[in-house]
Amino acid sequence: MSSIDEFALIRLLNGGKQSATLVTAAGVITGIGDDAAVVEASPGSHLILTCDTMTEHIHFKQVTMRDEDIGYKAMASAVSDIAAMGGVPRFALVALSMPGGTAVERVQAIYEGLYECASRYGIAIVGGDTTAILGELTLTVTVIGETEQGKAKLRSTAQPGDAVFATGYLGRSAAGLDFLLGQNVPSGEWTVFPEQTEALVQAHCRPEPQIEAGQVLQRSGVCRALNDVSDGLASEMWEIAEASGVGIDLIEERIPIADELAAFARTQGKDPLDYILYGGEDYQLVGTVPAGNAIELQMKFKEAGLALHVIGYVHAEGQGVRMVQNNGYIVPLAKHGYNHFSGADGKGGV
């Protein structure tokens, strides 16, 4: 890494990245530059705090993500947890650990991505830490969000008789990762990808946390359990089922499959449902709603220009997750999704 002291590096990475107007509007009293940030929380609200870490060669490689994407996705992953609680993200702290010899230009690009995502969702970056490391480059993002008192959405509130829903398309991020690993080309040498493939690459490198969808669910007053899809649909449904002490049946024919995912899966000789169930990092939302309110909720989403798909139901016939297949058979779904400690490579999420 080029010779530069810690405080000069902090100024280089953060100086002028966000307007004083954004920072003040977010309620920042004291931001970057002191021992700690001081922010104003609204009366009658609860704060939501989450932390997410990305490490090179575990969560990303230089053939699967550009440096700007690393920063963007690290922020988006943490922001998604706020969306999954029905909250609004407000502040972020960023900790960067980098090996000696890391180019300043690379770190600058990572921070450009961080600030791009933060500014898109009105989040003030108010501090963090930088340190040298003997291992791989590691980026940790802490996000503080806010929701009305007692209104945070939990995994533990699904009830028998609920309908199960998902926002948007699932499985595209995992397919994008598969494509990029197959190419094995450094991101700096990527060419223009065909339109459908580019959609998969974007889903993997630039996922969009569903803050707006989370707010629609919050305001609806009918959403019960809620979760974000970081480790695959099967894993997230198991989390809701176990936390709520219920069973969940997914209906195969109701799970939406994006055209670009179906096309790519055919080239790989795979079932697109494998990507949807066991891929992850889509950062869409899944949850439950009383069955009688499902159509009402779909209409609210349509009015907001968003998609919401009813993909199953909650029951009291034991605890776990099953799939109602198109042939009528009901089969149990494995609990696994992405596992950080299984030896898998190139992706991750919490």
From TrEMBL:
Sequence positions that bind Mg(2+) 1: 52, 129
Keywords tagged on the record: ATP-binding, Kinase, Magnesium, Metal-binding, Nucleotide-binding, Thiamine biosynthesis, Transferase
GO molecular function: thiamine-phosphate kinase activity
Domain PurM-like C-terminal residue range list: 159-321
Annotated residues for binding of Mg(2+) 4: 35, 50, 81
Entry binding sites for substrate: 59, 281, 338
Protein residues bound to Mg(2+) 2: 52, 81
Protein name listed in UniProt: Thiamine-monophosphate kinase
Binding site for Mg(2+) 5: 231
Family: Belongs to the thiamine-monophosphate kinase family.
Protein task: Catalyzes the ATP-dependent phosphorylation of thiamine-monophosphate (TMP) to form thiamine-pyrophosphate (TPP), the active form of vitamin B1.
Additional information: Reaction mechanism of ThiL seems to utilize a direct, inline transfer of the gamma-phosphate of ATP to TMP rather than a phosphorylated enzyme intermediate.
Catalysed reactions listed for this entry: thiamine phosphate + ATP = thiamine diphosphate + ADP
PANTHER family: THIAMINE-MONOPHOSPHATE KINASE
Entry EC number(s): 2.7.4.16
Occurrences of domain PurM-like N-terminal (ranges): 33-146
